[in-house]
Specification:
Elements lengths: L5 H12 L48 E5 L19 E2 L3 E2 L12 E3 L4 E4 L2 E7 L5 E6 L8 E6 L1 E3 L1 E8 L3 E8 L6 E7 L5 E8 L10 H4 L2 E2 L2 E5 L4 E3 L7 E2 L11 E10 L2 E6 L2 E7 L2 E5 L5 E6 L17 E4 L2 H7 L21 E8 L2 H4 L17 E14 L2
Protein name: Family 16 glycosylhydrolase
Family: Belongs to the glycosyl hydrolase 16 family.
Keywords: Signal
């Protein structure tokens, strides 16, 4: 969804360590059992009747004196047909079959309208390749401060954008089947000016024929971004908790998963997977549930010389705390926009489009994690499916 140059150095560390790693990415973390278990919330909004998600509880609480109201204009269970077309089209009354501007995509990606369709109750977004077609792009793959030009086989992929926008407080949740491919399967939010982004799911689900994508395949990326567009600057959290693992899942490719983000206010995000709260970003602190289900509470080490420090393990350097309250009390550094790229009080505060797509991202592709010509021939593996997406807003009880 963006140029993740900051991850290039990080992943050079990951790949070199995988042969001796047991999967525990935080050395001697403080893990605390969640003191406030997630409540079972009964879904009561009558607008949910008849949709595929009817009876599926909404994980976060709407707040005292409030209830969750379905935003029917933005929600969709894709129980209709839309045939792929190379022409610009609006379907379901809710989506256009391209990105929210005329950008064709990151790295070797080329978004094409004909790779989007709806059928059998699912949105289907696929990746394909035309023999001999290539795309050139610039990326600092060796992390020496100078971008190189790369030319690789083009990965054609689908992308859709909502015709309406969402704004906090809002809960956005989707049930998806991650593509069994090294490409990214994405559901995300992006402001019209491309300066604020919230990633609901970003998963690189397939291991690849040669297992070159093992580390990424077993994790789901939970992140957000703040940008300066010119000259381009990109912040996103790089702490270990932003890469979530589930016990017993060796790869997300081919798996159906329910994932949601509660954008509570400009300084607070909560991530839920299959109804379980797994990550919190609150103003100046991180809280993350590990692979064993335990919580760890951390806060960033302060900005130094205009950048966020990196720990020896390759992740963003953080300090440990015994509770979220202690982390908030000790922290002096935002986790939302610590480099003040937005110049707005470090807030995610703009309306955002909903975007669903497949991507072959530059930082992955230049490191060999792009589909091989033989891999991409398997269309089912390279199809990202969405069963439904639902959007709720908290409303006062009358």
């Amino acid at each position: 969804m963006k140029m993740k140059i900051s991850f290039l150095l990080l992943f050079s560390v990951f790949i070199s360590l995988k042969s001796c790693s047991n999967g525990d990415d935080i050395a001697n973390p403080i893990t605390i059992t969640d003191p406030d278990p997630d409540p079972d919330i009964v879904l009561t909004d009558p607008d949910d009747q008849g949709f595929d998600w009817e009876g599926v509880d909404i994980p976060p609480e709407a707040g005292e004196g409030k209830f969750w109201k379905l935003n029917q204009e933005a929600s969709d269970d894709f129980n209709y047909n839309f045939d792929a077309t190379p022409s610009a089209a609006t379907f379901g009354g809710k989506w256009t079959n391209f990105y929210h501007n005329d950008w064709e995509g990151p790295g070797p990606t080329k978004w094409v309208r004909e790779n989007v369709s709806v059928g059998d109750g699912d949105l289907k977004i696929k990746a394909t390749r035309v023999t001999g077609e290539t795309k050139s792009f610039d990326v600092d793959c060796d992390v020496d401060g100078v971008a190189e030009t790369w030319t690789l086989p083009t990965t054609r992929a689908g992308c859709i954008t909502s015709t309406t926008r969402v704004m906090y407080p809002v809960y956005v949740e989707a049930r998806v089947r991650v593509a069994d491919a090294v490409t990214a399967s994405d559901v995300w939010l992006l402001s019209p000016d491309d300066t604020q982004e919230i990633d609901i799911i970003e998963a690189y689900g397939g291991t690849g024929e040669d297992d070159r994508n093992l580390w990424l395949a077993e994790r789901v990326h939970l992140s957000h971004h703040t940008f300066i567009r010119n000259p381009f600057q990109d912040y996103q959290p790089r702490d270990a908790g932003s890469w979530w693992r589930k016990n017993g899942v060796s790869q997300w490719g081919g798996q159906w998963v329910r994932i949601g983000v509660y954008w509570r206010d400009p300084k607070h995000l909560e991530y839920y997977i299959d109804g379980e709260k797994v990550r919190i970003l609150s103003d100046n602190t991180f809280a993350s549930r590990d692979v064993n289900g335990n919580w760890s509470y951390t806060y960033p080490q302060p900005v130094s010389n205009g950048s966020l420090p990196t720990a020896a393990n390759g992740f963003q350097a953080v300090n440990q705390a015994s509770s979220l309250d202690q982390a908030q009390s000790n922290s002096s550094t935002s986790v939302i926009d610590p480099l003040n790229y937005l110049n707005n009080g470090m807030n995610l505060d703009k309306e955002m489009d909903i975007i669903i797509n497949v991507e072959d991202q530059n930082w992955n592709a230049c490191n060999g994690r792009t589909p091989s010509n033989s891999e991409i021939q398997n269309e089912d593996n390279h199809t990202f499916k969405v069963d439904w997406i639902r959007i709720y807003e908290p409303k006062e009880v009358n």
